[in-house]
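Sequence, structure tokens passed on for absentees:
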Amino acid sequence: MAKPKNKNVNSKNIHKKRTGSSTVRHSRLKKPDFSRTARKIIIVVIIITMLAVILFLLFKSFSTPEHIIKAKIETAATDYYENFFYTDITKYGTTEKSLAEIMDRYKDKGFSTVSLRQLLLYDSKKYADARDVVTSYCDENKSYVKFYPEPPYEQKNYRIEYHYSCDF
């Protein structure tokens, strides 16, 4: 048997937008979306955790005895050359020759080596605390630095070669 056709069905009524609200739609509008908030919180927690791990690893790598000792030796060597060695050369070494002529002789072969002991003792007040730490890891007689002046032979124009005899 064939179904009777509804004569009241009109195509404009079929495609008509519903103005009423369903219970599902209505419940979504009233409740906040906790899944989005939870996702954001989880992402923030993951990012903070990653940053904390990275900072911890960086701190750990920079706080090794080797890094600390080398930094103290580099600081002492820089201070020694700029505030003691270079000053003495400019005061006493420029009697007959210019500073550039004196320094030019040493740019390839460098000045004589300076032992770690000499670096740490030249200004005993300044490096007294560093001396205890450095000498616990390094042999102060076998560790040394060598200075090479570079043109234009000013106070900050030089390079340093470090030779460590240390147990890290």
Observations:
- The radius of gyration is 38 Å.
- The chain is about 55% helix and 10% strand.
- The longest strand covers residues 144-149.
